[in-house]
Amino acid sequence: MTFDSGRDSVRQVLEELRDVMPDSHLLTDPSEVATYECDGLAAYRVTPALVVLADTAQDVAATVAACARHRVPFVARGSGTGLSGGALPHAEGVLVVTSRLRTLHAVRPEDQRADVDAGVINLQVSKAANPLGYYFAPDPSSQQICSIGGNVAENSGGAHCLKYGFTSNHVLSLDVVTPSGAQVTLGTDAPDAPGYDLVSAFVGSEGTLGVATRATVRLVRLPQEVRTILAGFRTTDQAGAATSAIIAAGIVPAAIEIMDALAIEAAEKAVSCGYPQGAGAVLVVELDGARQEVEHEYAVVEQICTEQEAFEFRMATDAAERAEIWKGRKSAFAAVGRISPDYIVQDGVVPRTALPAVLRRMGEISAEHGVRVANVFHAGDGNLHPLVLFDASEEGATERAEMVSGMILDLCIEHGGSITGEHGVGSDKAKYMPRMFTDEDLDTMQLLRCAFDPDGIANPGKIYPTPRLCGERPRIVQGAHPLQEAGLAEVF
What are 88-119's pLDDT values in tens digits? Predict the structure, then answer.
């Protein structure tokens, strides 16, 4: 896709925005814009031509409208915690930062809703709702700093998504700025609004369909009882077998997580989490719900872990101990920096029954190529987060790590899984999309993108391996797409 941008068009956008925003919110100085050259995936870096620090939804709309007029690409960015390069800037484009949109407009326990701006921090929603007996269920490991807008873009999950689902299960309506700069509302407070489910189309679209500025989210009632369990095993096979047995027993824990020995080592060095010494794997299980139900489930989990030869089994007795157990798991990604100067965080999914075979083969791949891999994963739904460790200062180390990372994703696909569970495709995994989908599949998917963004200016280069958008000539649709010919290229 070619843009009428270059630096001249960006300057035109800048001049327009100076009429509506203070200069302090419009960054062009190289030392200032360099701060925004990457998100949580630091391996990819691009310096944006212009950074706009939006204070309001109107600021976002004005910025996107100016970009649309001058055919300048734009990328939205929240807190910048994404791990797939989804917020990677465009070198001749505008980066729209929404982290200042931080008003928590309302917490409404009477209908279990909260109205929040896109820049509101995930954990802040639960902190506001807790005194009223509610919380926001999606809980990425970065929940202390990640924003609701970013959660919407990536359809974030977290440790508790096994029982409570992803962000898409908790968003009822969105205020959105479309790629033309229009401000629209998708969805309603009602649980089943008529018409096409555009909210579900938008959540997880990674900024390619526009920018969310405000959301109405669903709140979940705080459970009567919560029990957090830590079990130590000699091998990951034992921990995996315990996981399968727990699910087979009809129990759906709020969360069930596994960390292997290398991940445990990193967590201990970083936060001294006190996990069982000598463990080849630890299993973190959280049960919640009615007190009587949790008591019964706890007894079953304890029995299963004993049968699978857990050598240590402990339960948190209060909130402080529960936080201590979770501290090691929540810090795992950052903690790996204590044992390796560089690492790649990967994100693939396999059927839960395939976990033992996949983990064993990952171990073989690691040994064959001399690249260490630490494993942290949502065991209940087979969502793997292998951390591929390397030292970029060593010749060929980066290339070997990237090769192993790709082999792990291929392994997930071979076992009927996916190349991403919750981190998104972004810039990092676009090249793997053809391994999961045919060219016809990819062209068909982009028909939706074309309907929202016929000029292809919203977060270009993300998700799809090539910029085959409406102005080009994809294989199965010659010339303009049918949506354009029908006059429906703009759906609002």
Answer: 999 999 999 999 999 999 999 999 999 999 99
DSSP annotation of 258: E
Domains of the chain and CATH, by start: 6-97 (3.30.43.10), 104-221 (3.30.465.10), 225-334 (3.30.70.2190), 340-425 (3.30.70.2740), 437-485 (no CATH)
Eight-class DSSP state of 355: H
- Is residue 287 within 8 A of residue 298, CB to CB? The reply is yes
Separate counts of helices (H) and strands (E) for the chain:
17, 19
- Residue 221 to residue 132: CA distance in whole angstroms: 9
What 3-state DSSP class applies to 287?
A: strand
HEC per residue, 186-239: EECCCCCCCCCCHHHHHCCCCCCCCEEEEEEEECEECCCEEEEEEEEECCHHHH
Instruction: Dump pLDDT digits (tens) for 255-294.
Output: 999 999 999 999 999 999 999 999 999 999 999 999 999 9
Number of other residues whose CB lies within 10 A of the CB of residue 212: 32
* Cβ count near 244 (within 10 Å): 17
Model confidence over 411-425: pLDDT tens digits? 999 999 999 999 999
What's the DSSP call for residue 276? P
Place of tokens 């029954």: 353
